[in-house]
Amino acid sequence: MGGAGAGGSIGGAAGSLGGVAGLAGSPGGGAGGVIARPCGDMDGNDVDDCSETLVTNSAFDIDASGWWPESGVTVEWVSRDFDDFDDSGALQVTFTETGAGDQLLMAGAQQCLPSIDEGNYQVGSHFFRGGGQDGWAGVNILFFGEADCTGALVGSQTLPLDAGEDAWLTTQSRVAVPPTVTSLMVRLVAIKPANAASLVVLFDGILARQK
Ligand SMILES: [Ca+2]
Ligand SMILES: [Ca+2]
Question: Which residue, of 38, 54, 84, 207, has the fewest CB within 10 Å?
Fold first, then answer.
């Protein structure tokens, strides 16, 4: 099902990675000058993603703080940075829940953006799924009617899935936040058939910004 969309997102990732290389090579950084080193620019807007994301601990430089495991999940920091930087790592999500049947289960690590405005957002992540496992790494967004991710669940959106394995890939999408939404939950998830074994996936460079 996701074949066509996956191809599209790979193309987008490759294009914006070119932008990353340019950013990394530019001496002194931009006007702000506060970026110790660039995180990348997956959305290609010439602004380093680390400096514009609304997410806390988006680059996982030293730990997994700010991200909370859901039921059936363990999270831990690993040193395997998506861009191979020695001074940064990634978030590892291990989804251990299993059951009968092949219906898809989804769970991961979550962070609430406690108060957001109506409008369009750009959300994305780098992710890695090692080979020999059934399932996907994904990013799922939940919309809530009240602040702090409380109140009615107004809706949800899952960014395009990509089944590629043994490589860092990128998924991103525009997320339209309707006027009835006050907060949203960013979920870095593993998705697998219930009867498949544990699934281990990595995430890094989480972007969520208003467009
Ligand atoms: Ca950017
Ligand atoms: Ca990192």
Answer: 84
